[in-house]
Specification:
440 residues, OB fold (Dihydrolipoamide Acetyltransferase, E2P), 5-stranded mixed β-barrel, 28% helix, binds aspartyl-adenosine-5'-monophosphate
Amino acid sequence: MHLRDRVLHRDLGQHAGQRVLIAGWLQDARDQGKIAFLLVRDRTGVTQVVAKKQELGDERYKAVTGPNRESVVALRGTVQASKAKAGGYELVLDPPGEFDVLSAAEAPLPLGVVDKVAADLETRLDNRFMDVRKPEVQAIFRLRSVLVKAGLDYFTQHGFTQIHTPRIIGASSEGGTELYPVKYFEKDAFLAQSPQLYKQAMMATGLDRVVEVATYFRAEKHNTYRHLNEITAFDAEMAFIDSEEDVMTLLEGAVHHMWKTVAEQCPAELALRNVQLTVPGLPFPRIPHAHAVERVNATGKVSVKPDDDLSTEAERVLGELMAAEGHIFYFITKYPGGIRPFYTYVDADGTSRSFDLEHKGLEVTSGAQRQHDVDKLEARLREKGLDPKDFESYLKAFRFGMPPHGGFGLGIDRLTMEVLGLDNVREAVLFPRDRTRISP
Ligand code: AMO
């Protein structure tokens, strides 16, 4: 038996009447005495296998019905139209009964694969290899893969070069203190909070448009449904822009393309998750921060000061207001300069050329036009209490010809959570890292 020749569940129909090899996890074996029904699961579905004692003989029949659930098995049989399921196919394990246990599963299982009772998320994450055997969980990661590819396709079609910047850095990239220290030979180093400074440096190279599927490491002590300590994001930067509006136009096009691609290419995954996806119309509304504050304050449900960021609750309230107007995606723009990172372009009136993209009250992207004038950039570092000397290798890239530029970070974990309406970002990440979880 060559495993590489195995036929997947979805292709059985093309082999009706033929003897084929199938392989997968033994989901269940119902032994009715003289006849047994095995359920063998592969990545495309579950095949019923019929085994008859009279045809196989006692010993062979016992071997076939013996393995524990979730053992990995391979077997050869004849494909026939299913009697129970119209349009379906099953396999008859005909003599001599070729059946191999490739890997026996222990019992009891740490987590059920087809149990009716839902396990809690912690138990599922502790046993993720088992959890992902569930088709409805596999669907999340299949869809995430399509989503990421669609994003990368969009960016490359729009002239972006995919880059890879360091994950080990010598100084903070976001200005904050939420860094993981790393011992780097004789020096102190950190895990990268984002590729921010590197992707900006790339704007001085002439590549003009770059994108990275980046990992952000954030040592924040959050413990919420939407925060992780290790994050995957599209990190994009583009040069020769007139304003942040050019960045927002590119971004909304990318998000629209990702939603549309998923709607077209993932009907089975969406069905497994009971999701009916609406592709958002373009353009997404732009709401200046000052208006957003006025609007949420007018509801009386929250109170946000003009120079403050929207609280989680305020974001939620705005999400409700926008949903009532039929908008699931919208930008909050022109944040006060004081609450945005040092690299953000701030206009004379104190508002910044920055934006967040929100989906139903959750921030999925942050971005801006950047300050490309090196003197102003240094002044802004000082304003933020940072020492320009610590940023010398970054600032150098601004001293020898740096075009106007801007970009964004689009959280892939949050986007996956949102496209599927998951209630916890951990569901969208294979092996999430949070305040308490570092294994598996
Ligand atoms: P920011 O820190 O807002 O911006 O991150 C960008 C996007 O990354 C996602 N994200 C997170 N997702 C889950 N858990 C977290 N703890 C978390 N932190 C961030 C969000 C967020 O919108 N350098 C800027 C981007 C830029 O201006 O280009 C940055 O890192 O979806």
